[in-house]
Structure formats: structure tokens, C-alpha cells
Amino acid sequence: MFGVVFPNRSFPMDISAFTQIDTFHWLLDMNTFVGEAYDSIREVCIFLINNFTLPQDKALAVYIQSPGSPFIFCGAVTLVRPSAVLSLPWPEPGGQMQLTAADAAPVSAKIGMSVEDLASLPSLDVAAERKIERLAMKVGENLFNFMQSFCGVDGNKLVVPMDILDRWFKKFQERAKRDPEYLKGFAF
């Protein structure tokens, strides 16, 4: 049906490594895989195995859950996109404490797989969207810092020269041409 690989951390694992919850849901308990160091696993490669047929309008969605936190969507694979390397942005563990007997298993992080309607899922390229968002935030921060160095105050208003955007953009372009590494700093 499907398999996963944690780059530089595991050999390929098939569906048998997961606990099947029902016909369309599976869980991987990260405690059994890496113990409490689940947040050191930053990526997963998921792939459909050749003999698995997923309907065209369905996707195999990937979710992660830190202890005590809700599941977070990470991405999905489909027949059109049968494999993907997904970032695992583990959320901070939640504040919900689980009271268990002394011999009970501790609360652990999980990776969930779910067959879902493709139309109901967010964008399948979550990592790319996050990179674009980080890029936009860093460029905006760069502009703000540049403008702040030329600001004047008029009452409760900041006043900047009219050509400030042109000056910033020209400086930004020149620096990017001189130093190819400069723009890479904005990507992450």
C-alpha cells in the first residue's frame, strides 16, 4: 500500500510498521522508532507501493502529533504524485498530561496516515508554501529595517523619503548580484 523512509535515519518501512486503526487510518508511534527524540526527525519520504490503487479523487494524507497536541497536516501523496519528501514541523508538546498506570506506555509523538478526499485537503505543497511565507517575511523585515534608518517623526506618524522604496530595491538588487549567497539567507 505505502511505505516511508526517514532520510538518513531508517531503511524503508512498509505499512506493517504502522498500527492500523481502521480501513483508512494508520499510526506510527514515534516512541517505538526513536524514543523521545522524535523532534530530531525533520523529514519523511512517503511513497505509494506499485500494487496499491488509490482512487483518482483520494489522497494518502500525512499528519504529525506531538504529545498532548492536535494532529497537524504535513502533505499527501496521490496517484499523480505517488511520492513526496515532507517536512515534519513538530509542534511544541501540549499541556495535556496523561495519567497512566505505572506499567502503561507513556504519551508519545505519532505520525498518522489517512486516506481522504483530495478536494478536502489543503495544498499538497505545504513545505513550499512555508518557504515562500518565510521568504516574504524576511524580505519585508529587510525593507522595514532599511526604511527605519531613514525615518523621521511627525507627531504620531513616521515620515520616510518618497524614493525610499526605489532606493531599497536598488540596494537589494545590487547586493544580490554581488553576493549570490545573500538571497539564500532569505530562503530559510
Task: Please give a structural write-up.
The structure is a single chain. Helices cover 27% and strands 29% of the residues. By secondary structure, it is α+β, with helices and mostly antiparallel strands. The strands form 3 sheets. The chain has a 5-stranded antiparallel beta sheet with strand order 3-4-9-6-7. The protein has a 4-stranded antiparallel beta sheet with strand order 2-1-5-8, with no helix packed on it. A two-stranded antiparallel ribbon has the order 10-11. A hairpin with a 7-residue loop joins strand 1 (2-5) and strand 2. The chain starts with a strand and ends with a helix. Mean pLDDT is 81; it is low at 96-105. Residues 17-121 form the Hikeshi-like N-terminal domain. Residues 132-184 form the Hikeshi-like C-terminal domain. One of its GO terms (biological process) is protein import into nucleus.
Topology of helices and strands:
Elements: E1 2-5, E2 13-14, E3 19-22, E4 25-29, H1 30-34, E5 43-48, E6 58-65, E7 72-77, E8 83-87, E9 110-117, H2 126-148, E10 152-154, E11 157-159, H3 164-178, H4 180-187
Antiparallel strand pairs: 1-2, 1-5, 3-4, 4-9, 5-8, 6-7, 6-9, 10-11
Helix pairs in contact: 3-4
- Oligomeric assembly: single chain
Number of E strands? 11
Strand content: 25-35%
Radius of gyration: 23 Å
Kindly report the spatial arrangement of strands forming the biggest sheet: 3-4-9-6-7
Give a quick account of the main beta sheet: strands, pairing sense, barrel closure: 5 strands, antiparallel
